[in-house]
């Protein structure tokens, strides 16, 4: 059948662009969606703000220091969802296999060329043009023969850009790429790779599968395939997210509940922002603590239906209180949402629910 034809479409600064579209006074100005000057985290930043180093998931106080003229705007997720539905309707005109990753990005398998456009590149161009015409927003797209490369490609010429990585070009593209750009390689993994002398895709490609598995566990097999430009994951229209979370490690151990609750605030904001972006509704909240002796403890609470924002924060703080006072210092704290799926169709509910399902 030949190589697959995969498109990854990623909206440009989606939340901020919607706000600038709807409020002309914000156009050309550095805008941060979410948070505030005093607390919270940035959900999204306009390109004008990004020039100052403002990024999503950044604490608002840090963003304000980097960009004193930053304008904070309250998120309007109902508007973002409505625009996202417009965009997904366009996607479905070109592919039956559409895998949304969040409100602002998705994979499309256009191997069958549903509309007879002629090529994956032409399909991507047509989709971008229709998005601009119908929503007034710009999107970037990556076209390649697998999901790994398509996602990398969509980020290559942002904003409002298109990048095509053919099978002939794939290996060289991956070889020249810094490993930090690989999807799935976070800052800590990139640091570990650097200590091992692995800085680029070519360095990663030179490592054996056995070595990468020994160093990175199950992820080693993925890194090995990615370094060779290989990715056989299908585009799943029915994909269900398993979990979504965030955690932070402290420079110094914290033993007081007040300090831990304070650190939990940023994590709550980050996780909920990501859940809103993914349009994900969860029924289980899990708290994780790692103590100074590296012992890990988790506590969870599940509900009959999706938990709302207030419920998520209240449960997270209650689970933490249940573990205090702590016997020794805490070096890491994290929160996770899980239990997605059919419950997403139910109405969101608060805390007047059954007792905890377990710990």
TrEMBL record:
Annotated site, Substrate discrimination, chain positions: 15
One Pfam assignment: IMS
Catalytic reactions of this protein: DNA(n) + a 2'-deoxyribonucleoside 5'-triphosphate = DNA(n+1) + diphosphate
Primary site of residence: cytoplasm
Cell location: Cytoplasm
Domain UmuC: 6-186
GO function terms (MF aspect): DNA-directed DNA polymerase activity
Active site residues of this protein: 105
Cofactor: Mg(2+)
Entry EC number(s): 2.7.7.7
Cofactor binding note of this UniProt entry: Binds 2 magnesium ions per subunit.
Sites where the protein binds Mg(2+): 10, 104
NCBIfam families membership: PRK02406.1
HAMAP family, per the entry: DNApol_IV
Function: Poorly processive, error-prone DNA polymerase involved in untargeted mutagenesis. Copies undamaged DNA at stalled replication forks, which arise in vivo from mismatched or misaligned primer ends. These misaligned primers can be extended by PolIV. Exhibits no 3'-5' exonuclease (proofreading) activity. May be involved in translesional synthesis, in conjunction with the beta clamp from PolIII.
Family: Belongs to the DNA polymerase type-Y family.
Subunit structure: Monomer.
Protein name as catalogued: DNA polymerase IV
Organism in which the protein naturally occurs: Sphingomonas quercus
Gene that encodes it: dinB
């Amino acid at each position: 059948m030949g190589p697959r034809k995969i498109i990854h479409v990623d909206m440009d600064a989606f939340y901020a662009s919607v706000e600038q579209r709807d409020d002309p006074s914000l156009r050309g100005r550095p805008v941060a969606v979410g948070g505030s000057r005093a607390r919270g985290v940035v959900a999204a930043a306009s390109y004008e703000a990004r020039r100052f180093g403002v990024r999503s998931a950044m604490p608002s106080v840090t963003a304000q220091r980097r960009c004193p003229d930053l304008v904070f705007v309250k998120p309007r997720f109902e508007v973002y969802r409505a625009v996202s539905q417009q965009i997904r309707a366009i996607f479905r005109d070109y592919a039956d296999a559409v895998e949304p990753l969040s409100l602002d990005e998705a994979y499309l398998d256009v191997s069958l060329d549903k509309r007879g456009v002629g090529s994956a590149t032409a399909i991507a161009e047509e989709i971008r043009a229709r998005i601009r015409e119908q929503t007034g927003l710009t999107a970037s797209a990556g076209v390649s023969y697998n999901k790994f490369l398509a996602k990398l490609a969509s980020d290559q010429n942002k904003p409002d850009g298109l990048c095509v990585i053919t099978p002939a070009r794939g290996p060289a593209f991956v070889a020249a790429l810094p490993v930090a750009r690989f999807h799935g390689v976070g800052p800590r993994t990139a640091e570990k790779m650097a200590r091992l002398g692995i800085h680029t895709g070519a360095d990663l490609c030179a490592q054996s599968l056995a070595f990468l598995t020994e160093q990175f566990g199950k992820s080693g097999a993925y890194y090995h395939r990615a370094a060779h430009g290989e990715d056989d994951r299908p585009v799943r229209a029915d994909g269900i997210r398993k979990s979504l979370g965030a955690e932070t490690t402290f420079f110094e151990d914290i033993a007081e509940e007040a300090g831990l609750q304070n650190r939990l605030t940023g994590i709550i904001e980050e996780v909920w922002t990501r859940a809103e972006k993914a349009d994900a509704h969860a029924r289980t909240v899990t708290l994780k603590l790692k103590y100074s002796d590296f012992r890990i403890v988790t506590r969870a609470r599940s509900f009959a239906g999706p938990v709302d924002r207030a419920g998520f924060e209240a449960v997270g703080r209650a689970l933490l209180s249940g573990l205090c006072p702590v016997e020794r210092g805490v070096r890491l704290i994290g929160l996770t949402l899980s239990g997605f799926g059919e419950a997403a169709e139910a109405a969101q509910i608060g805390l007047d629910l059954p007792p905890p399902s377990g710990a």
